[in-house]
From TrEMBL:
<feature type="region of interest" description="Disordered">
    <location>
        <begin position="414"/>
        <end position="435"/>
    </location>
</feature>
<keyword id="KW-0408">Iron</keyword>
<dbReference type="InterPro" id="IPR029119">
    <property type="entry name" value="MutY_C"/>
</dbReference>
<dbReference type="InterPro" id="IPR000086">
    <property type="entry name" value="NUDIX_hydrolase_dom"/>
</dbReference>
<dbReference type="InterPro" id="IPR003265">
    <property type="entry name" value="HhH-GPD_domain"/>
</dbReference>
<dbReference type="InterPro" id="IPR044298">
    <property type="entry name" value="MIG/MutY"/>
</dbReference>
<dbReference type="GO" id="GO:0035485">
    <property type="term" value="F:adenine/guanine mispair binding"/>
</dbReference>
<keyword id="KW-0479">Metal-binding</keyword>
<dbReference type="InterPro" id="IPR000445">
    <property type="entry name" value="HhH_motif"/>
</dbReference>
<keyword id="KW-0411">Iron-sulfur</keyword>
<dbReference type="Pfam" id="PF14815">
    <property type="entry name" value="NUDIX_4"/>
</dbReference>
<comment type="function">
    <text>Adenine glycosylase active on G-A mispairs. MutY also corrects error-prone DNA synthesis past GO lesions which are due to the oxidatively damaged form of guanine: 7,8-dihydro-8-oxoguanine (8-oxo-dGTP).</text>
</comment>
<dbReference type="InterPro" id="IPR015797">
    <property type="entry name" value="NUDIX_hydrolase-like_dom_sf"/>
</dbReference>
<dbReference type="InterPro" id="IPR023170">
    <property type="entry name" value="HhH_base_excis_C"/>
</dbReference>
<comment type="similarity">
    <text>Belongs to the Nth/MutY family.</text>
</comment>
<dbReference type="GO" id="GO:0006284">
    <property type="term" value="P:base-excision repair"/>
</dbReference>
<keyword id="KW-0378">Hydrolase</keyword>
DNA sequence: AACCCGTGGCC
DNA sequence: TGGCCAAGGGT
């Protein structure tokens, strides 16, 4: 639908925002009500027109919804995996991971029988790895406590590891048709605009207001379509920069009438991004590479990495690399190569990772370093990991690693692929190789 | 409530 | 480039 209404500049008067545009008026909002002030518009709440709103939304969704792999059969398993995968993850990435996941773990039983390392490897690159560990734990719980059948009642769904209020509601409504809302960031945005919620949406009282409206908007017997439609509208139309000209709910939207849709939702306070200077070192004996498996909890839980840590004040990255290796493994090492810097952005900090090649000092008996591998292991004291391994470049491919460490490993052990024109879509491994 | 947990795309 | 963001959950 073309943009038919003139875009309203910020600061336009409330009267100008609505005068002479009957097509944009709330249903039942007569011309005699003009001028539209914030008070008069709010008085005519969209809540008085819920059936019309519901129908407009469902009609729009029927036409404009994207074809997505989890919108085919709506099995609880697929709904669950897709919902967790898409948490904090962009749709396009989610699709490729989802397809690969379903190929590898087609059902709860297959998943429950899998090794965690394989699950994490498949998840590698998606981040928030506790999601993968929770999914596996939940699959095993479904086998143990629900006879392998995905539970259909909200309380049992909510009791699964990694399933919070959002995901429980999403599964219950989208897979089982329960009359519950799904309130994600998309829906927060849509509702905060329709009802002109003028305080930060993540906090009270806004969160409660939004949730109550969300519940009230769910039509009887159509929660699957409605909830997806709300999220789809937020993803495609009611985006950060709203496309009100294409919105099926524009006629119901208070903030649109007031010309302030782009000022909703009201954001919370922003996180401060702090720079972090860190190091990591690749220790090799012959063709073997030292890696360690991180603790189960905390950052990158159960993932493999090269040892390292922060650069302390007054310390050079080289010094930090040697010190961290001693602290984390007890190995006395020295720097033999500088592999440069990897920069990686996180939600709350920006990492500058200095990467070095290392070798052991004082090898066993003063002989060649190869003697350290198996027959004569180096004296090891792991302090920052649960497990270690002398691995090979080939095996490294099959260990789940954090993105920055994977980037380093690829730069060392994988030739950068020749200019590839194919849309690296088959597997993530291929995408990795063509980066 | 506030903070931690990852990542890559976008502009 | 860098700040912001995306179908949250756990503590």
């Amino acid at each position: 639908m073309p943009q038919t209404r003139k875009k309203l500049p910020n600061g336009v008067s409330k009267k100008d925002a609505s005068a002479g545009q009957p097509a944009s008026l709330l249903p039942g909002f007569e011309e005699s009500c003009l001028p539209a002030t914030a008070d008069t518009v709010r008085h005519l709440t969209p809540g008085d027109h819920i059936p019309g709103l519901q129908k407009a939304l469902l009609d729009w969704f029927a036409v404009h919804q994207r074809a997505l792999p989890w919108r085919v059969s709506y099995t609880p398993y697929e709904v669950w995996i897709s919902e967790v995968m898409l948490q904090q993850t962009q749709m396009e990435r989610g699709v490729s991971y989802f397809l690969r996941w379903m190929q590898r773990f087609p059902d709860v039983a297959t998943l429950a029988a899998a090794h965690e390392e394989d699950v994490l490897l498949l998840w590698e690159g998606l981040g928030y790895y506790s999601r993968a560990r929770h999914i596996l734990a939940a699959a095993r719980k479904i086998m143990a406590e629900h006879g392998g059948v995905f539970p259909s009642d909200l309380a049992s769904i909510r009791a699964l590891p990694g399933v919070g209020p959002y995901t429980a509601g999403a599964i219950a409504s989208i897979a089982f048709g329960e009359k519950l809302p799904c309130v994600d960031a998309n829906v927060e945005r849509v509702i905060s605009r329709i009802f002109d919620v003028d305080s930060p949406v993540k906090q009270e009282p806004a969160a409660g207001v939004i949730h109550r409206w969300a519940l009230k908007l769910v039509p009887e017997g159509k929660s699957r379509e409605h909830n997806q439609a709300m999220m789809e509208l937020g993803a495609l139309v009611c985006r950060k920069k709203p496309l009100c000209g294409a919105c099926p709910l524009a006629a119901f939207c208070i903030s649109h009438h007031l010309g302030i849709a782009d000022q909703r939702p009201v954001p919370g306070k922003r996180a401060v991004i702090k720079p972090v200077n860190a190091v990591t070192g690749v220790l090799r004996i012959g063709k073997n590479i030292f890696v360690q498996k991180r603790p189960p909890s905390g950052v990158w839980g159960n993932l493999w990495e090269f040892p390292g840590g922060r650069v302390e004040p007054g310390e050079s990255p080289e010094q930090a690399s040697v010190r961290e290796f001693m602290e984390e493994t007890g190995f006395e090492v020295r720097v033999t190569a500088n592999y440069g810097v990897i920069r990686h952005g996180y939600t709350t900090y920006r990492l500058t990772l200095h990467c070095f090649g290392l070798e052991l000092m004082n090898p066993c008996g003063g002989a060649e370093a190869e003697k350290y591998s198996e027959a004569c292991p180096p004296p090891l004291q792991l302090t920052a990991a649960q497990q270690y391994k002398w691995t090979t470049p080939e095996e490294l491919e099959n260990l789940a690693m954090p993105a920055a460490h994977r980037k380093l490993a690829d730069s060392l052990f994988n030739k950068p692929a020749a200019t590839s024109d194919e849309p690296a879509s088959a597997t993530v491994r291929q995408a990795r190789l063509t980066e």
